[in-house]
Design a protein that fits this description.
- The protein is an alpha+beta fold.
- The protein has two domains: 13-17 and 84-187, no CATH class; 19-80.
- 48% of the residues lie in helices and 19% in strands.
- The protein is built from five helices and seven strands; from the N terminus they run βααβββββααβα.
- The chain has helices spanning 19-42, 54-80, 131-137, 141-154, 169-187; strands at residues 13-15, 86-89, 92-95, 103-106, 110-118, 121-128, 158-161.
- The strands form two sheets. A four-stranded antiparallel β-sheet has the order 1-2-3-4, with no helix packed on it. The protein has a three-stranded antiparallel β-sheet with strand order 5-6-7, sandwiched between helices.
- A hairpin with a 2-residue loop joins strand 2 and strand 3 (92-95).
- Helix 3 runs antiparallel to helix 4.
Length: 188
């Protein structure tokens, strides 16, 4: 049995989602969906024979429609939801911010928390001692593929876009590091 974290005093810290970033993501996804539909419906022609190839053109349009269609669904759900993006408490973290949100991550499963930059944005990477567990718990095939990608390229299946949270990333890292230290001291 572990003692409670003194830094949290039995209270949780809620980090809200960044609604303005979510709104921008929704608008961008909608624009790409509409562009893909326009290509499919109006069949525009261009002078470049490579880009005028019907297979390439329609393949790109269908792919864009599907990919950004999922984006519309994701951003709409996050904007409509009332849950915070991240909850930090005596037990660990509760992730509701990442695209493949894993829910509860106990302190005992967290090795470290780091930041990294990928695709021109910063990510909060929660490095866990049992990454396969989190990957196997994901039943959505697309989210599972994303988690596998994160694990291969970032070292953990759990990566949260820092811009998706409404907080100062440095302060958040300090809170998480303090939580890890407090948990490790409580276990000893």
């Amino acid at each position: 049995m572990t003692k409670p974290l003194p830094m949290l005093n039995k209270q949780s810290i809620s980090i809200p989602l960044n609604k303005s970033k979510l709104t921008k993501g929704l608008i961008g996804s909608l624009l790409f969906v509409l562009t893909s539909l326009w290509i499919l419906l109006y069949q525009p022609t261009v002078s470049n024979p490579i880009f005028n190839n019907p297979l390439l053109k329609y393949g790109a349009a269908v792919s864009g429609f599907l990919f950004f269609g999922f984006g519309v669904i994701y951003f709409s759900r996050k904007l409509a939801g009332k849950k915070p993006g991240l909850i930090i408490d005596d037990e660990g973290l509760f992730d509701n911010a990442s695209a493949a949100a894993v829910g509860r991550i106990p302190w005992m499963n967290i090795i470290r928390v780091v930041t990294t930059q990928a695709m021109n944005q910063q990510f909060l990477v929660i490095v866990v001692n049992n990454p396969e567990h989190y990957i196997n718990e994901q039943h959505n095939a697309i989210k599972k593929k994303g988690m596998i990608y994160n694990f291969k390229h970032l070292g953990s299946p759990i990566a949260i876009a820092a811009g998706g949270l409404k907080c100062n990333l440095r302060e958040l890292l300090e809170i998480l590091d303090a939580g890890l230290v407090a948990h490790r001291m409580a276990v000893v």
